[in-house]
Amino acid sequence: MEQILKAIPNIPKQDAVPSYDEMMEMRVKAYNSVKGSLTGYDCCECLNKGYIAKISDGNEVMSECKCMKIRSTLHRIKQSGLENQLKACTFKNFQTDSEWQRQMKAAAAEFVKSDSIGFFIGGQSGCGKTHICTAIIGNFIKQGLSARYFVWREDSTILKAMVNDREYTERINEFKTADVLYIDDLFKQKDVKDADIKLAFELIDYRLRQKLKTVISTEIDEDALIKCDEGLASRILQMSRGFRLIIPYDRNRNYRLRKE
């Protein structure tokens, strides 16, 4: 037997043909390694393609990358003119010369890390409420959450004017269903009308029931909010339990009035 084996020529082994599963793995790996051309946000997961290839039940499928939420949010922010504000208003550059400012920053930073769904800050105009709330939104965007700004004085006017139009439901749903909604300067007007209460209630009630994160800034305090509408106020106070701040009225805290 040994002599027979020695007589057989040494035939080189051929490479094994990849199996179907191995071919799929190779295809997925090849696609995921290619860089895409999307701009505005640098994603290390999809390499700026917007999609990631995966294998599901033996088939190659394309899954939307979580960065697409971030890209959509950044696009809307750029269109709204709030892009520079988002860059300027961060936790890092929020001034904390006084204890009340340190409390604002600490509460906001803790909210970002918590599972709570509401952050409410009211009181003195010009004290940095918009800054600290914008910083919260910026941090949530970095976490991959979709975010919408609702500038009350502007967006409420638009929605109230189109309440009987077909587009109303589509437009308000964009605010109702966002991962994070920031309502800036709630009830920023002299007289709060029934239409304002109804609009705010529709937004807040939906987001409370769906347990979606909502950030609210306003110049009114809790008592004034309750006087506007107890049902709306109770929902806001419920969702912001543990993260509710009222900055006492003091003109010295208004940075817009400070002399250079």
Any chance you could write out the topology, listing elements then pairs?
Elements: H1 2-7, H2 20-33, E1 51-56, E2 59-64, H3 67-80, H4 83-88, H5 99-113, E3 118-123, H6 129-142, E4 147-151, H7 152-161, H8 167-176, E5 180-184, H9 194-210, E6 213-218, H10 222-228, H11 230-239, E7 244-247
Parallel strand pairs: 3-6, 3-7, 4-5, 5-6
Antiparallel strand pairs: 1-2
Helix pairs in contact: 5-6, 9-11, 10-11
Task: Describe the structure in your own words.
- The structure is a single chain.
- This protein is of the alpha/beta class.
- The chain has 2 domains: 16-65, no CATH class; 70-257, Rossmann fold.
- The protein has 11 helices and 7 strands.
- The protein has helices spanning 2-7, 20-33, 67-80, 83-88, 99-113, 129-142, 152-161, 167-176, 194-210, 222-228, 230-239; strands at residues 51-56, 59-64, 118-123, 147-151, 180-184, 213-218, 244-247.
- The strands form 2 sheets. The chain has a 5-stranded parallel β-sheet, with helices on both faces. A two-stranded antiparallel ribbon has the order 1-2.
- Strand 1 and strand 2 form a beta hairpin.
- Mean pLDDT is 86; it is low at 1-8.
